[in-house]
Specification:
Blueprint lengths: L8 E4 L5 H11 L3 E6 L22 H4 L5 E5 L5 H11 L4 E4 L13 H7 L4 E6 L14 H7 L24 H24 L3 E6 H8 L1 H10 L16 E5 L4 E5 L3 H10 L3 H5 L6 H6 L1 H12 L4 H10 L4 E3 L3 H6 L1 H5 L3 E6 L3 E6 L4 E2 L2 E2 L13 H8 L4 H10 L4
Length: 403
């Protein structure tokens, strides 16, 4: 099928996760993504292992965010490398970078410099704290931003419980959200350019993204002027909406409305709880959760997980298991939706990745190329895009500017 971004070319100067996550999504949607890496070291995440793909030095971390790209090795610290990048910008639609603020200006690869080459360029900068402000020059990493941006203060068990204290999320959610905000912003800028003929400089800050991700918890504070606290697996605005222990494990009970609570109480053999004035509506259950939750814990602890999952499913009460990642990929729904993606790698043959979750006309949009080896496409890309510059490209190879 023809993909929506076919004909769009992205020059990707980013590394680690937020930028590559963005450009991988653009590649899945059909964009041609040229990943620019240092000729010797490449993207930092190539070495963030083990585990590594068998038979290669490509870390699983790197593989998670670089499908569909063509890697070229260019030393942008050298004048010849900078000249090459400027020539490539002239035939690209988008530049994506996540250097520190001002980091590319000394190379003449900042937004102002590159718009002299291509006035309608869409240039997306992802940084820790944005292009201005008192923290602008600081480096930003996901873990730091989860802490500074409030997420860790509302994640984890309360201090009064065993194991209490702030906790980071199990994946780099700030990077992932930043990558997706960057991708949607780039797509919006492409639409805008098609209408106005003007490009844009997109400023995405991990700190800003983390603050925006606080969502209802931010509004809980802004509305009440009280900072939310850690509740473990409980919810500040919905009750019961948390994990509960059973006789042989744990389940998640996610009651979203009063009718579901009544049906839960029926299954639990405690219809009187739904009739109790203290628990008859969600707002009352939230206010009286310290009275209700201990009773629910005692009820749910009396039976095995299988009983609750089967009976609550029959009654239309949202519930589910807490799966390991191995169990996730064995889940029949995940398998039916083909979320495990099989690709061919030129060095090792069959490999597995996680599919792009987006479908167009009931078809997954996944790029056809596996994550590239360092500099795998340098000469094929340059000879295709700059066919008249063969002597220049040969000279760069001899000087070690490209690999």
């Amino acid at each position: 099928m023809e993909k929506p971004l076919e004909g769009i070319r992205v020059l990707d100067l980013s590394r680690i996760l937020a930028g590559p996550w963005c450009s991988q999504h653009l590649a899945d949607l059909g964009a041609e993504v040229i990943k620019v890496e240092h000729p010797q070291s490449g993207d930092d995440t190539r070495g963030w292992g083990p585990p590594y793909l068998t038979g290669t030095q490509q870390a699983a971390y790197y593989l998670s965010a670089n499908r569909g790209k063509r890697s070229i090795g260019v030393d942008i610290s050298l004048p010849e490398g900078q000249e090459l990048i400027r020539e490539l910008v002239g035939v690209c639609d988008v530049v994506l970078e996540n250097f520190k603020v001002g980091g590319l200006k000394r190379y003449g690869l900042d937004y102002e410099s590159l718009t002299e080459v291509k006035p309608d360029l869409i240039y997306c900068s992802i940084t820790g704290f944005g292009q201005n402000g008192p923290y602008a020059k600081r480096a930003g990493y996901d873990f730091l931003l989860q802490g500074m941006g409030g997420l860790m203060d509302i994640t984890g068990r309360p201090d009064t419980e065993p194991g209490g204290g702030p906790m980071k999320v199990g994946v780099a959610v700030v990077d992932l959200f930043s990558g997706m905000y960057a991708a949607t912003s780039i797509l919006s800028a492409l639409i805008g350019r098609s209408r106005t003929g003007k490009g844009a400089w997109i400023d995405v800050a991990l700190m800003d993204v983390q603050v925006s991700m606080l969502a209802n918890q931010a509004l809980n504070y802004l509305t009440s002027n009280k900072s939310p606290v850690r509740l473990g697996n409980a919810h500040p605005n919905i009750v019961p909406y948390q994990a509960f222990a059973t006789t042989n494990g744990n389940i998640i009970l996610a009651v979203g409305n009063d009718a579901q609570f009544k049906r839960f109480c029926k299954v639990a053999g405690a219809p009187q709880l739904a009739l109790d004035e203290r628990f008859s509506t969600n707002s009352k259950r939230v206010r009286n959760c310290e009275l209700l939750i201990p009773q629910l814990k005692n009820l749910i602890r009396e039976r095995p997980s299988e009983y609750w999952l089967e009976m609550l499913e029959c009654e239309g009460v949202p519930c589910g298991p807490i799966n390991s990642i191995a169990e996730v990929f064995a889940d029949p729904q995940v398998q039916h939706r083909n979320m495990k993606l099989h690709m061919e790698h030129p060095d090792v043959g069959a490999m597995s990745l996680v599919s792009n979750p987006v479908r167009f006309d009931d078809k997954h949009l996944n790029a056809e190329l596996p994550p590239p080896s360092l500099g795998e496409h340098t000469f094929s890309v340059l000879s295709n895009i700059l066919p008249e510059r063969k002597e220049f490209i040969d000279s760069l190879r001899l000087k070690g500017v490209i690999s």
